[in-house]
Amino acid sequence: MLFAKRNAASPAKVLRLIRSQEWRQSETLRVTQRPRWDATPGAQRLVIRRQTIGELALAPMRWGLAADRPAGEKHLRPLNTIRVEALAEQWEWRRLLNTQRCLVPVDQFYEWKRIENVKTREFAFKLKSGRPMMIAALWNRAQSGVDSFAYISCAANTLVSLIHDRMPAILDETSIATWFNPDASLESLLSLLKPLRQSDLEAHPVSQLHSTTQPSQPSLFDRRAA
Q1: What is the pTM of this model?
Q2: In this structure, are residues 168 and 153 in contact, taking their beta carbons and an 8 Å threshold?
Q3: 136: burial class by Cβ within 10 Å (0-12, 13-18, 19+)?
Q4: CA–CA distances in Å: residue 140 to residues 29, 95, 99, 119
Q5: Cβ distance 18 to 24 under 8 Å?
Q6: How far apart are CA 195 and CA 20, in angstroms?
Q7: 128-166 pLDDT, tens per residue?
Q8: What is the C-alpha to C-alpha distance for residues 207 and 79, in angstroms, rounded to an integer?
Q9: How far is CA 223 from CA 75, 81, 219, in A?
Q10: What are the chain's domains?
């Protein structure tokens, strides 16, 4: 208990990292060459993770996680999103959930409304409080030494479900300490990964100017997800 208490991360520590505004500098670390007005799969972002000494820090990681596979198994292309339903079922995700959790601070996330599988209008989702979203994620280090991450997705709340059936798992301030507690149980971690209350979110259509004349943010769930 003393070890867990000494190494438990408080929401205040995370908030200090967020208030530093340094995480927004990750927009200059894009890996992709195409100019975009916000992050895309394959880009690099600053995420919050636990260091080996137990402290929290911002670290650059590539969006697109390569899962470890047993010898002889085919390696799949990187994942942008991991479904919370897969975390309790597949050993590689349980391992990462146990040891390599992180948070991705973002101002908003985007999703396309589709009619008969045709994109019709893009929407941005933000917190009504104006604070950055803290999206739960898992990270891994490849044999090449490159660190990468994938968002965790859960079922959409009522608001987001008008656009898409999935949404990022967004943690509130009271959940942060548990998320970074090295002794947290599987059950307690999974209980955090649920839809955010719809009353905490607001949605706005993205201007047609951004949607038509600039490369825009793809859906979090357009590409392969676990």
Answers
A1: 0.79
A2: yes
A3: buried
A4: 19, 10, 10, 32
A5: no
A6: 27
A7: 998 888 999 999 988 778 899 999 999 999 999 999 899
A8: 29
A9: 16, 8, 8
A10: 2-213 (3.90.1680.10)
